[in-house]
Amino acid sequence: ATSDTSASDTSASDTAANDSATNDSALNDSATSDSAANDMTAGGTVEWDDSEFPFVRCRMAGRLTRAHVPAYLEGLDRQLDRAAPFVILWDVRQLAFPEPWALRVAGEHQRRRVADFRAHLRGEAHVITSPFIRAAVRMVNWFQPAPQPQAYFRTGAEAERWLREQLGVYAATGSGWAA
């Protein structure tokens, strides 16, 4: 059940508005518990923030390399290994277009842990301003469909609101899935 809340692709005027949205209070880079910031090459970063668990944030920016894979996988595995319901806000507004190997790694990981995703992940919200990054995320999900609800947003505030609704559905029904 994938939804896309954006009506059109980002235009030049949207870009300026989205640059200011990067500073959404929900996505500030403040000190966080259990945060893994990995700036290994070319300014690429993978940052996990689970200080508000079950609300988890992951921010990926710049050009990611193979050196970033452990931070991505270990952060996601850490959340899945808790064996508790949670949601993830993926902030990829500043991510360079991923190379094919990175898309393959994400899809293979989702396939390996599909039972854990199904059991614990109650929703994923992707904050994406680039139509190319949106296409890359959709490509991963085309090869390996996500077992959890997903949605795409242009701002962190919209994404956070939707994810908190997903948590509310889970709390109210115990099922984790919106009716």
Explain this structure.
- With 179 residues, the protein is of the alpha/beta class.
- Helix content is 41%, strand content 20%.
- The protein has six helices and six strands; from the N terminus they run βαββαβααβαβα.
- It has helices spanning 12-21, 69-81, 100-112, 114-120, 131-143, 156-173; strands at 2-4, 45-52, 55-61, 86-91, 121-127, 150-153.
- A six-stranded mixed beta sheet has the order 1-6-5-4-3-2, with helices on both faces.
- The chain starts with a strand and ends in a 6-residue tail after the last helix.
- Residues 1-41 and 175-179 have low confidence and may be disordered.
What is the strand and helix layout of this fold?
Elements: E1 2-4, H1 12-21, E2 45-52, E3 55-61, H2 69-81, E4 86-91, H3 100-112, H4 114-120, E5 121-127, H5 131-143, E6 150-153, H6 156-173
Parallel strand pairs: 1-6, 3-4, 4-5, 5-6
Antiparallel strand pairs: 2-3
What would a concise description of this structure say?
The chain is an alpha/beta fold and 179 residues long.
Name a few traits of the molecule:
179 residues; disordered N terminus; disordered C terminus; alpha/beta; 41% helix; 6-stranded mixed β-sheet; 6 helices
> Share of helix among residues?
40-55%
What's the mean pLDDT score?
75
Q: Which structural class should the secondary elements be placed in?
A: alpha/beta
Uncertain parts: 1-41, 175-179
Number of strands: 6
Distance between the termini: 11 Å
What Rg, in angstroms, do the CA atoms define?
Answer: 15 Å
The secondary-structure element order is EHEEHEHHEHEH
Question: In order across it, which strands form the biggest sheet?
Answer: 1-6-5-4-3-2
Shape: globular
Biggest sheet statistics: 6 strands, mixed
Proportion of residues in β-strands: 15-25%
- Total DSSP helices: 6
